[in-house]
Prior knowledge:
Layout: E1 2-10, E2 23-35, H1 47-61, E3 65-69, H2 73-80, E4 87-90, H3 96-112, E5 120-128, E6 134-138, H4 151-158
Parallel strand pairs: 1-3, 3-4
Antiparallel strand pairs: 1-2, 2-5, 5-6
This protein binds zinc ion.
Amino acid sequence: MRKVQFCAGHRLLGHEGKCANLHGHNYLVEFHVTGREVDELGRVVDFAVINKLFKGWIDDNWDHGFIVWDQDKNAIDALKQVEPNKIYQLPCNPTAENMARYLLTEISPSLIDNIEGYDLQMTKVVVWETENAYAEATLDAKPESLPEMTDQVRNAIYS
Length: 159
Ligand SMILES: [Zn+2]
């Protein structure tokens, strides 16, 4: 398991309370990787390899940026007024649950395929939004176990 920390802003479109405002978090993401076998040094994979790929992706795309739902035209238009800006448009509301599932199902498979010589799988991604609140996505989770996900995301992933 590899931890990656980053800072980002977001808001939850349609939230009934303060999360509807633009605000930020110091996020912590756990990437849980499993392999069918260990290499000659007894490792599933070198941590540095995972770090380079996944911290690299987070740094490039999410760190010190704003993560917004691509339907949130109001926030996107406002953020684009600021120069420079770093906006990442998610196909779903940027809750910790949706961010974990997006990393697990949309981002991890292609990144992990870049690691040659290992048979690896990202089995779980955990997104900590605060020290006390996290959400996780696992490969074997059934749609029914993810009530927080928007129907849009669920349909995109399971259809
Ligand atoms: Zn928040």
